[in-house]
Amino acid sequence: MPARLACHCSRHELPFSTRRLLAICNLLLQRCGVADHSFDLLLTGDREIAELNGRYRNKAQPTNVLSFPLTDDEGDEMLAALPVKELGDIVISVETARREALLYGQPLRQRFTWLLVHGLLHLLGYDHERSSEEEARMEARERELLTTLNQQRNAAMTKLAINVDHVATIRQARGIAEPDPIAAAAICEMAGAAGIVVHLREDRRHIQDRDVRLLRQTIKTKLNLEMGANKEIIDIALEIRPDLITLVPEKREELTTEGGLDVVSQEKKIAKVIEKMAKRSIPVSLFLDPDPRQLAVARKIGATFVELHTGRYCDAIGEDKQQAEFALIAAAADEADGLGLRVCAGHGLSYHNTAPIAAIEAIEELSIGHAIISRAVFSGLDKAVRDMLAIIRQADLSF
Prior knowledge:
Blueprint: E1 4-7, H1 18-31, E2 38-44, H2 46-57, E3 65-69, H3 75-81, E4 86-93, H4 94-104, H5 108-123, H6 132-154, E5 159-163, H7 165-174, H8 181-190, E6 195-199, H9 209-218, E7 223-227, H10 231-240, E8 244-247, H11 267-279, E9 284-288, H12 292-300, E10 305-309, H13 311-315, H14 319-338, E11 342-346, H15 354-358, E12 363-368, H16 370-379, H17 381-397
Parallel strand pairs: 1-2, 2-4, 5-6, 5-12, 6-7, 7-8, 8-9, 9-10, 10-11, 11-12
Antiparallel strand pairs: 3-4
């Protein structure tokens, strides 16, 4: 039976998407041997949890987590005695969890997950206040369950694809052969990149036809060809057969891609491109703003992936505005995943803002270029790639 979730706080305050959070709850039920049982999880703030704490525990102050078992029986006998397969209720204050994460130097996801595990074990009859032996038993079970969650997360670690367009931009500025994006792609792969991204623009301002052809012959991971829905570029893609194409909007006067593709207004045109690529077994990703309307059309016309545009999140000034933009991305990733679309993200991501995006469970790959190539000027390309991978991996492991 699935767990049930109620949220009395803003979604952008949560360390997980609601979809991911429910998946964690149900995995925990399975690992605890009570997959046929359920519980209710309430996420709230300090005021409401203080009221509950005062009413039921005579402590009129905020706390981190409260558990309300359906019965006072203990251990396995408690589960057998339940008239229905309900364990009870868990209440977590997201505000207190955030303060504790800062106090203990932990990522919020890690602190929140511990509170969830702690609360569930109380529903199952564990009680660390009963005796020192029971405290040790409960702590050991907590460590076991948290290890299980971390192992599951490791199996689906977020990948990093490197956009080498800016290497070609430097080359084209002098009109010579160096630096070569083909060599850059090889260094990125050896440093751990899971794929290489290039944008073959209609105006050929950086990546050239020769680059795409050589990359198709030499890269060992995955070639993602970004492109506009231009007939000439479509024909090149059909000939070269990259591992993935990403359709993006393209304007001659722009410095870089400025926003997501509007598939709502171009549904028929984009659908025809997807159909052509499907005949050559080339999956299509659509570069979209985090807008449910765009996602729905992407699913309708047969896209395999969507790449969520993170530009507004990266450009946001002030924590509140950035959190609001982050919430849109997290919700869109959750929505796209629910529609059966595979989810990537990119644009404007840097060493300072990537970690929260990498921590969104539904996002399987990040596309990053400018920040990595910029750092490479000072540290070298191999180290720049490894530094970004370290940030992504830490975000993935931060339960």
